């Protein structure tokens, strides 16, 4: 994968900067929440839209755990990862070493740790169960009509079959189910705050975000942040953007949020194909966390290849995730921490006059 | 100032130190005024349910003043009786409980409910019963737009009129409308049956009017009695996806070998 944002450079401190000692070595960030303590996010990376129905439930559960062991927030419903009578490992308390010695004795107490998890709250709520709210990290209220691989605004038969295997739904196999764009129990953007507040009550451990598409940022960002979510996700991977467009739209999204009195509301973006360097540059442009679907989705392809050749053995997703993610996350973390040494407005520069002018960053000569 | 402790007092004397009556399982009272949602929920869940399925333990809830997000995630086999209005998302994601409210409710009443019953003696706003997977939601007044949207199971009864796009995106379950319905009735619904007594302004593309079969008459008649909705099942029309009607028609005339 090549750097999309290669014309941008992460600038070191100027030559006359005094030796300031070791900078803070934490990559943790905080998300402020209404009526609750701030949420700690260990790593500002997330897997926004895994297509879990491509895998068996066991594989999906194993993969979700393997990826989230790297502190990447993973989006999944219980029904994505397990059948009717099974508790996904991804949703269970994280086992420590003593638990491994005596399996089955893990009890969910108040000190138990859980994998960082995003609950996709789609307008239709197919597959969503009340237990999905428990110990969630982020509730993601999706306000964008999803397209399936065919291009339809719809959910595919395999998705519906996965989500609804445990309810009374029958005979929907083989048909596409049209998707909605706005919660049917919310009559307008004006009443969206009540919905978000409801979700805060249902999921007291979580921050409540809304997510929108990239098409109407000028109109939709003010409306979305006007409902006072704890964060906003913009899904730029919906369109094949030129690198400069991606950079400019990221910066523009942040400006629109600032203008809408949401300066401190986190902006998370899903950028499509990016490298670790690109991810940090997007942070420098105003994003607070980056969707790394481009890094994680290939793990599903790998598993399918493995499945076809070694279908009788269980896939070692920990190993696959290490191969795919370790170096990228290490690089991201290193560059991200290096950013902290440089004042916010001096973090980026470009030798390209066009890029520098478009993004209003330092032109290097 | 610390928040007030939840109190659940029996209508008869004899509450224990937690405020929950251990001796008289049949009637309790909880005031929602001044309590958080969690405190109300905890107080309800503390009450020991009746062993007798036919006679649920009754809990009277006072202080309903249009609160949003009230009485959510109650998963307890008790009967809740509420007088007064509630706001949006009342009774969301409930199971087992039989809730009866006299008053109006806002948007999303009974969202995601899994089992049990919610009976509203008043009107409901938009999205009533959205994404419910089981149980019964009965609205004795009228319902707003998108009632039953995305539902996957259970039944919704609306004695009065219902708004536009009823059952939009629903995948399973049944909706009974005693009055009229608005536009695009049954939009994008998959495996749902709607019974309607009045008229719909328009049916959505892909759904059709179908005759009521004998077994559905019997089933609907029983459901109407259970939901305390007056009327004869024969007065209702059946709205189903056209594909389902095609399947029904193609099955007609098939010889079932087990009959021989």
TrEMBL record, chain A:
Residues 84-110 are annotated as: Disordered. This is Uncharacterized protein. It comes from Stieleria marina.
Automatic annotation (TrEMBL), chain B:
Residues 1-24 are annotated as: Disordered. This is GXGXG motif protein. GO terms for molecular function: oxidoreductase activity. It comes from the Bacteria. InterPro entries: Glu_synth_asu_C_sf (IPR036485). It comes from Stieleria marina.
């Amino acid at each position: 994968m090549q750097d999309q944002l290669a014309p941008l450079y992460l600038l070191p401190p100027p030559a006359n900067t005094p030796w300031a000692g070791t900078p803070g070595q934490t990559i943790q960030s905080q998300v402020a929440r209404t009526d609750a303590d701030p949420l700690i996010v260990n790593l500002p990376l997330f897997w926004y839209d895994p297509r879990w129905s491509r895998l068996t439930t066991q594989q999906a559960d194993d993969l979700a755990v393997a990826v989230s062991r790297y502190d990447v927030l993973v989006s999944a419903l219980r029904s994505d990862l397990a059948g009717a009578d099974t508790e996904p490992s991804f949703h269970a308390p994280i086992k420590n070493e003593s638990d491994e010695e005596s399996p089955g004795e893990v009890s969910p107490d108040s000190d138990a740790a859980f994998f960082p998890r995003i609950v996709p709250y789609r307008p239709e709520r197919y597959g969503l169960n009340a237990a999905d709210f428990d110990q969630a990290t982020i509730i993601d209220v999706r306000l964008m009509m999803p397209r399936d691989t065919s291009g339809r605004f719809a959910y595919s038969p395999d998705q519906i079959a996965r989500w609804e295997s445990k309810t009374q739904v029958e005979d929907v196999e083989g048909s596409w189910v049209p998707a909605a764009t706005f919660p049917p129990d919310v009559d307008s953007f004006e009443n969206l705050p009540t919905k978000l507040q409801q979700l805060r009550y249902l999921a007291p451990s979580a921050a409540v975000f809304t997510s929108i598409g990239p098409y109407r940022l000028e109109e939709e960002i003010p409306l979305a942040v006007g409902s006072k979510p704890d964060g906003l996700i913009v899904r730029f991977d919906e369109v094949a953007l030129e690198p400069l467009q991606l950079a400019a739209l990221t910066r523009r999204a942040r400006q629109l949020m600032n203008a809408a009195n949401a300066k401190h509301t986190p902006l998370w973006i899903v950028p499509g194909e990016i490298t670790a360097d690109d991810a940090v540059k997007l942070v420098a442009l105003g994003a607070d966390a980056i969707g790394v679907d481009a890094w994680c989705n290939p793990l599903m392809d790998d598993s399918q290849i493995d499945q076809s050749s070694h279908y009788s053995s269980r896939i070692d997703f920990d190993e696959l995730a290490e191969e795919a993610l370790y170096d990228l996350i290490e690089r991201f973390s290193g560059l991200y921490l290096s950013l902290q040494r440089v004042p916010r407005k001096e973090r980026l520069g470009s030798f390209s006059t066009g890029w520098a002018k478009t993004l209003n960053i330092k032109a290097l000569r | 100032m610390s928040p007030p402790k939840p109190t659940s007092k029996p209508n008869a004397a004899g509450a224990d130190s937690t405020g929950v009556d251990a001796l008289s399982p049949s009637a309790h009272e909880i005031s929602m005024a001044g309590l958080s949602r969690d405190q109300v929920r905890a107080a309800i869940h503390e009450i020991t349910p009746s062993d007798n399925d036919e006679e649920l333990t009754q809990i009277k809830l006072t202080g309903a003043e249009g609160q949003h997000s009230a009485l959510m995630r109650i998963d307890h086999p008790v009967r809740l009786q509420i007088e007064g209005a509630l706001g949006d998302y009342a009774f969301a994601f409930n199971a087992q409980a039989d809730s009866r409210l006299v008053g109006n409710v806002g948007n999303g009443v009974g969202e995601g409910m899994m089992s049990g019953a919610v009976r509203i003696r008043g009107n409901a706003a938009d999205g009533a019963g959205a994404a419910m997977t089981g149980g019964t939601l009965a609205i004795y007044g009228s319902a707003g737009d998108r009632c039953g949207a995305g539902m996957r199971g259970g039944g919704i009864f609306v004695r009065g009129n219902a708004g536009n796009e009823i059952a939009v995106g629903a995948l399973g379950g049944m909706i009974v409308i005693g009055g009229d319905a608005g536009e695009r009735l049954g939009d994008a619904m998959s495996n749902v049956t709607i019974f309607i007594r009045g008229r719909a302004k328009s049916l959505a593309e892909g759904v059709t009017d179908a005759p009521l079969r004998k077994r559905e008459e019997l089933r609907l008649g029983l459901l109407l009695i259970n939901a305390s909705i007056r009327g004869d099942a024969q007065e209702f029309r059946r709205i189903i996806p056209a594909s389902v009607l095609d399947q029904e028609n193609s099955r007609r005339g098939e010889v079932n070998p087990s009959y021989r």
